[in-house]
Amino acid sequence: MICNPLRAGDETVIDLKILTGRRMDLVADRTRTVNRLRAHLTGIFPGLERALDVTNTGPLVLLTGYQTPAAFRRIGRKRLETWLRNRKVHRADQLAETAFEAAERQHTSLPGEKLTARMVHTLAKEVMNLNQQVAEIDKLIEARFREHHHFDVITSMPGLGIILGAEFLAATGGDMSAFGTPDRLAGFGGVAPAPRDSGKISGNLRRPQRYNRRLQRVFYTSALFSIRHCEESRRFYDRKRAEGKRHTQAVLALARRRVNVLWALLRDGRCYEPAPLARAAACRKERDPLHAGQPV
Hints:
Strand order of the largest sheet: 1-2
Helix content: 55-70%
Protein name: Transposase
Number of strands: 2
InterPro entries: Transp_IS110-like_N, Transpos_IS110, Transposase_20
Distance between the termini: 38 Å
Number of domains: 2
Domain Transposase IS116/IS110/IS902 C-terminal: 153-237
Organism: Streptomyces stelliscabiei
Number of helices: 14
Largest sheet: 2 strands, antiparallel
GO molecular function: DNA binding; transposase activity
């Protein structure tokens, strides 16, 4: 296990490490609960399971009240829509229509339906509770992260928002001098290949085997986000793909390049600014009514 280079006394970073660790636990619990919910719902009402995204609030509210085709047919489309509206569900009419159409396609009661329906009800409530806990801890993370002196620098980097930025601090401590060079930071984050030289053979590289997986996830995920919203990142990614690299290889190459940029920003204490070409492209998009208001 690789130890994080935290310095004693950095209370903000220590708190962020605790909070982001707790958030990861909650998200993992939520994923497991959602998977169990889907499995139970598939057992009694497969058509509804295929039609709903049970990670969203509306479908979860729906499943706390009704779980079987017969139950949906008994209440009817209009009454179901009213029931959903009373619980502040967004697009209640569309959700009611989706559920009722699925119920109309299944007129068979499957074994264990009654007990499984109770399990679906319970699991839906558990997912909603976990969603609430994640939302609450996200607020705590943001409040604590904003107190750190690197907040503006880190969040200015395309793709690094509140949560990923906080996880970056939690994994690194925020002190780049602890690593010495951006190459060491990239190696610690698993986005730089490790040398595999032997005897007379040199220059061979391999995937690193020892690295901080949380930091690698931060680098990789933020690189993915930046491809969507940053012209410079998109051009770099497209160039690597044109060179024959696979998607994952191109994203990792971008992540490695972004480590150098982030390192320099933190070293100099300045915020990220797009290159002149990217700024010009952004200005053209802002002037173009077809792109007005879209993220760059």
